[in-house]
Amino acid sequence: MAIIKEYRGHIRNWEELCERLGIRTDLTREERENEILLRAYETWGHEMADHMHGMFAFAIWDEEKEELFCLRDQFGTKPFYYYETADGRLLYGTTIRGIMEQPGFVKELNEEMLQIYLSLTYAAGENTFFRGLKKLMPGRYLVWKDGKLKITRYWTPTFKPDHSRTLEDWADEIHETLKEIMPEVKTPDETAESFLSGGVDSSYVLAMSDVEMTDSCGYEEARFDESGLAKQTADILGRKNSRCLITPEEYFEIVPYVMYNMELPLADASAIAFAIACRETAKHTKLCYSGEGADEFFGGYNMYRNAERYGENLKTFYVGNTNIMKEDEKKRILKKYDPDVLPIEVARSIYEETEGLDPLTKMSDVDIQIWLEGDIYLNVDKMSLAAGLEIRMPLTDRRIFGIASRMPSEYKVNEEQNKVALRTAAAKVLPEEIAFRKKLGFIVPIRIWMADDRYNQDVRAKFRSDMAEKFFNVDEINAIFDDYVGGNSDNWRKVWTIYTFLVWYEEYFVKR
User: Fold this and answer.
1) What class does CATH assign to 2-153?
2) Alpha helices in 135-268 (DSSP H)
3) In terms of CATH, what superfamily is 167-303+371-435?
4) What pTM was estimated for this model as a whole?
5) Which UniProt keywords apply (predicted)?
């Protein structure tokens, strides 16, 4: 007999699985998904995830074998953590705080992670900021039996470009596949809203859905505000739009809430805006769509257009979407610096897997395996959970990735445009000016706000605190901050990355 010990997620192809596994379809969602997990485990054992589409992380106790089986989905959309205690037990779960509350957990800072964090702005790879607490990485399962832990990788992103097809062929396949997926993303009796920015991904998801209400964020600073474009898209598609105006006061006030609920520090400035958006949206719905995944699968970032130029050099420096502090700078600002702890090590095995593939594919794969898991999906999961909102991401799907994995890079990025094939697919249901609109990214006016003495008092205080003194050469970090306030706005990311770590540290090691 098997028992579900932990589960968070949403199984998309539940109807097909119910039919294959002989499960009644008139059950509640919770009963149905529990039944699917147990029957899939009984039927396919450790290979069960090969048959499932969706977002999931779970733990199943097998009484007969006396073993624990834990699994995280292929892309890591839901988190899963584990910790071996001094007396040989395994603590596990989908939240860090849930593990911390269990007997045997010893809270210690893993200070090595700070070196990685100062470059990447998130906790990349399997280690976390808590010593001994690890992430089960995407596409892997864990078996715990007789006090021994074994981790197996059941899925790896693989790329096999097919040069026999045209741009239209690829666009048609994307469109037809998304058409198949959308009815699975929710049941007819569920009502969803959809996050909407000025970009193509959220607009495409909206156009393919039956959603009536959309949710957008805006700022008073016009050059950062995409909410007007989002409203235009909603109007064109005949949907309603709810706009949440984010003020600098609200933005800075919510930072401790974000770092506490994120459980690990995250210096992605858009995460704070996303947290506010989740809280506002949760006031009028419990289910929302979002467009994550397409940028990494289909070549959405502007830096991907430099891929060919980087060539073989990539594996010496490219560790994902962000790399804001070089080693010499970290050596200067940190009290403890270990020359062997290098961000590039996190990506080394990925470069081995993509040996012989083109530079864009290598960049995408690093972002799919490291950045999506460590930043994007962490943010979506933790901030939605904190707000009591469920977010589903139709474009993060193995079937969508399956298309991207066969698509040659020239249909992803060219000299004029990124996400070429995806935009071509989106143009089947969106006006060209929306489908081919230049990528703006989810931008925040933080680079302006944080230089303003009306809003940066806590940043200033943290940079001069005894807490900062533990980790940093305070004169050095204050020099970076002063340089930023004095007009070098490029330093904002460095300031924000140091600040978010200090806020998080205060939440977990000072207040509690």
Assistant:
1) alpha beta
2) 167-185, 200-207, 227-236, 248-253, 255-262
3) HUPs (3.40.50.620)
4) 0.96
5) Amino-acid biosynthesis, Asparagine biosynthesis, ATP-binding, Glutamine amidotransferase, Ligase, Nucleotide-binding
